[in-house]
Structures
1.
Amino acid sequence: MKRNGSLPRTSVPGKTVLLCFIFAALTVGALSGQEAENTGGEEQNYTPEYRIDDDGRIIQTLTWSRSNAYYYEVEIQRRNEAGTWETYTTERTEEIFLEISLPPGMYRYRILSYNVLGRVAAASGWTGVRIYPAREPVVEDFIPAAFHVDNHQEEFTLTLRGQDLMDEASVYIIAKVEKAKPIEPLSTQHSEDGTYLSAVFSAAGLTLGDYDIVITNPGGLRTVKEGFAVSFEKPVDLPVSLGYAPFLPLYGGLFKEYDNPFYFLGFYGRFSVLPFKRLWGNIGGELNARFADITTKDERFTLNGQLLIFTLSALYQRWFRDYTMAVNFRVGGGAAPVINMQFEHNDGSSSERQIAMYVSLAAGVSWQWYIWRGLFLEVGLDYVQFIAASGTPPGLMQASAGMGWRF
């Protein structure tokens, strides 16, 4: 029944159908536009994460970036013995990762993104994956058992022998102390049969102590081998040196009697024991023997005498320049006898020979340069203070230059 000539209300749904049609057309157009974004891309290498489930299977996790997709399809291909690729499996997922257990081999995969219409909207490039067999490396022995920080080497090679030391296996050493950081090698070499691995490490930054050797195969299994150490070549150093040592009198009654400004005829000998060795320095003891002829001639007489100084000192030694140079600091005390003291007059008469005994304190420094193995050159300067019962106690300086050997 018409009313006042107006159109029936059934014409409104027709507009709704038209709008829905237009919206669907635009949606299809947008989805079709997404299909145009397919990319081939060059194949990239990728190492997937993995975990081991309760059954002992190794589960790899393939991941990718999220896109505006309704779901994803993961196409996985495997390289066969002929070197060509063949489809291994195709998996569907709505996540941006896929957990799968792949046996050892060479694989590649790509991600196909699907829209709400079930059509491919985009395709990623191929990503290469190499799955290694899960083999635990076995280390039977290694050389050297220790690296000696005082052997003048900037690098050292650690050689491992065993089984299943696979190609591309990684190795590092780590000190057995809290919060120690792994020390990576500068380079590594592997044998084709998996029985040999060598790694070159830098000596810089090493500390004394025991280390673990950690080897990890590409499949993820690893082995920790104990027994490697960073130490000194010898637990105790025994340097011995001899040389020329003139004396310079400073003050005191003894040298006023002899009245000589410098004594050229002098020698020294040192024997050191250094049992406490650390990177910050060595600590030990030292026995010093000094000799000087202090004979003085005058117009009226000759005053004979020889000065001996025996000192037992505490010694601190600090190394430099990759253990080729060392500075030694010493302080101690001992005895200083003056022997054969005698006046010889020009008329031929002479006094009896006498001995004067002093207690001495000494402190000094010396520098050693190791020129070949244990052979070193040495120069030094020492101050000696005598303690006298009466009169002004004498004091002197002694310069020294000589050679020695470290046993």
2.
Amino acid sequence: MFYLQSLEIPIIAAPMAGGVSTPELVGAVGAAGGLGFVAGGYLSPEALAAEIELAHSTGVPFGVNIFIPDDAPSADALARLDDYRAKLTDFAGRYDVAPGEPRIDEDHYAAKLDVLAQSPVPVVSFTFGCPSKEEVEALHEVETFVLVTVTAVDEARAAARAGADALVVQGPEAGGHRGTFSATTQSPTEPLPQLIREVIDAVDLPVVAAGGLASGPALRAALDAGAVACQLGTAFLLADEAGTPEAFRRALQDPQFIETRLTRAFTGRPARALENDAVRALRDAPPAYPQVHAMTLPVRLAAAKALDPQGMALWAGTTWRDAQPGPAAEIVARLWAAAQEARA
């Protein structure tokens, strides 16, 4: 079975759903001594199987991340969807599209578990919840190492009880979705190094740090706090191999964007993104996931097609200014050298 401690360089490319985490990125990070992840979120089971096959062809270890379905939104959250639709319709007018329907979608969770049982991979990580003990045991039977994303001590304890092999401890600095077990959860706001220490005190499991890790000193602080590896997403957004849309790439280097915000605007789940027109106009989105995600999808796709970053979900962590373009292997080498220099 794969173990985190076997990594030549303790850097993991975070799974970034929606096309950013390409097989090329997975292979490049793995070949550089780290670990890449296939982002299984939003993929059909068939598409996930194809991505896994491509990742296997790289010849390096890799992981697969999948989303755990949310509990049903509260009656209050569902009641607020009509008001949200009115605001979204106004905003969508600039792209001449209409909001999508607020459908319920479990992201083919059970079918994806079947894919992972039939086509085993070295590592599987879970986000948005905790797998059952039986689901973890099924992955262990095919020699798969299991990671669970947590944002608080109580979530870490639940993952340990389920039999997780290690935890991805996600701090509030992270870009993209908070990995909370519920869309309504208000996760802790303490800095990542402090959260790592709290989790290590609470459970006896290896910890992967995630959130705001786009520089050598940040990596060093996480490792010194007790993490065995660091998971980076924002740092790889400008990598040559990443599938980051062109308008998104430009926005990351555009001085008009000055800060990130934690927002429910795009999916109903709290997520950190560059503040743009959409974040400002749709900030009152109810905690209804995946309904809000389905409603905003046509708008986000239309904005991306128009190369307009003001309507896109520009997921980014607090240290997005540290992200640099270039081959993924160079990004891994540069960050690890900087982390070692910081230690010295």
3.
Amino acid sequence: MDSIMRGLLTGIGGYERCVTEFVRVSQTVLPKRVFYRYAPELLSGGLTPSGVPVYVQLLGSDPALMAANARRVALLGAPGIDLNFGCPAKTVNRSRGGAALLRTPDLIRSICTAVRDSVPASIPVTAKIRLGFDSEAEFGDILCALGQAPLTELTIHARTRRQGYRPPAHWHLLAEARESLPFPVIANGELWNPADIMRCASASGCEAFMLARGALCRPDLGAAIQALHHGAAPALFKWEQVRQLLIEFLEQNRRQYNPRYAVNPVKQWLAYLKFYYPQAGALFAGIKRVTDPDEMATALGACHWAQAA
């Protein structure tokens, strides 16, 4: 998620931390402007407007180069560094990035060690992996290597790269990682509602969870999970609340980026929101050919969309 979406969702509540989109590290130490583009929160103490820390995520395969970029990010004030060893995109994997490194667990360990040694001890260094590249049979070797890595925490997407995003997520396999690793394990994958969190916690034993697509489908998901955890009944945001978020999302995109690029992110978000809100599907059908931000603003503000709630 970009900084605008991070700001909106953390403003609703329920989140303890965010992670940026990955910053690709391939040939050099990147200039400050690149990190500010991915994490403008660095200009505000590394926090979202509601005070939630934003870790900067790096993706690459060269330990020394990853360490040098992590050092720069730390100097820019990042609250934490996250390392991506889970991205399943073919273009990323072909250039030896993301989940491709799951085939070489020792290299993952070397990258983690180099990054940890390059930044102050006060800055957390975390990582994200999958169960393996081709097969879950690789998971044991990956855990063995990571058990020797000086990480603060590890997030595990409970599927292999080959399994992609196809259900189910194999939460029960995370119990092995939680029991064998010397640092906390965060569960990820197929977490769409508070009930999924409860089932994942039971299967994995994990006490922390990373949300991704589920948070886009239901903007109040983090707050709803926290409510359930504290014994309250989580209430789904009403469509009118979501519509106001869409209006704010469009306006912030217009201010932060070139206005002509402000419309497509709204359409993309509507595609996720329709899983919980049929009004989002109806709205998308009416604006899918809209390219002008003013026309989009008019559509979002139209009374009949609010009345559909």
4.
Amino acid sequence: MKFTPLKFQIPLAAGGIALMAFNYLQFAVPHGKGLIKLSDLPLAAMSTGQTGLYLLLIMIMLAFSVINLGSTAVYLKQLIQWVANKTEYRDFINSPPTKNIAVFVPVASLSMTANVVLAPLAFFIPQLSSNLQALMLPGLIFFGILWLIIFRLEFRVLKTWLSHPLDVTQLNFIWLLDVFAFGLVSLTGTGIAALAGSEEIASTAAFASLFTLSLGCFLLVTKLAYLIYLQIKAHELPGKAILPAFFLVIPITCLYGYSFYRITLYVQKYFSFDMRMLSFFFINFSYVITVGWGIFCLYLLSNYFKRDFLKSDFYPTQWGLV
């Protein structure tokens, strides 16, 4: 099967599920400072219900971490070969915005993999969790590479959009993939900023993350407002293959809210400012928008879920439901 950047949706979705399980354990199970580890689970003191739930989450986290890392290794090799074939890459970048926006999926997926290594994988491997600070510098270098790639891609894609006729009637919520990728790159950078014991590493990651967060937020507000305008103007929903992409706003909002929350952790740690109010605002504001948009989408797409979701073919946009 011919390579396409959309293949990276598999490790991207798998990593998202692994992080869901990890985040639940991180916030539900009392433990010391830092990220939760397998040894932090008080198995002897847990009830039967807790034991069953936590073991299920651990199995989910392990299975989907393996899928994320394994599929990333396979598709990364194909991605390198695809980029090396300059003709295929150039043709893809110069294609319409409803297609070339998919070039951001590998960046988003690799950012997700970085978070899987720092969290779910470290949960299982004591050598990683006990030497997390040793990963901060390599993590910063990897984040820097992703940072350079995503800005280069964004400027390249913008140049294509501005230099070629743009059929606005073909734009849909897939157009937000670059915003999503900026959110995941920001999550990686702010994670380093919040966790790093070295002020130099933390400050570098935080400063660079502010660039991705700023441009990402600008793109989100601009694109989302324009997409809503086009949708109202169209007086009808797009095709079935595009409908699940409405849910893409949910992970985007969570990513930006959590990234800004991590920035407040960095500021509080290194500048001793009381950031509790801002932390509360960023987390709750993002999740209020998330819940509100989710309920709105369920109502808006109710007929699709009733009549088509279980019967139709798989559409790439369905990973946005994760």
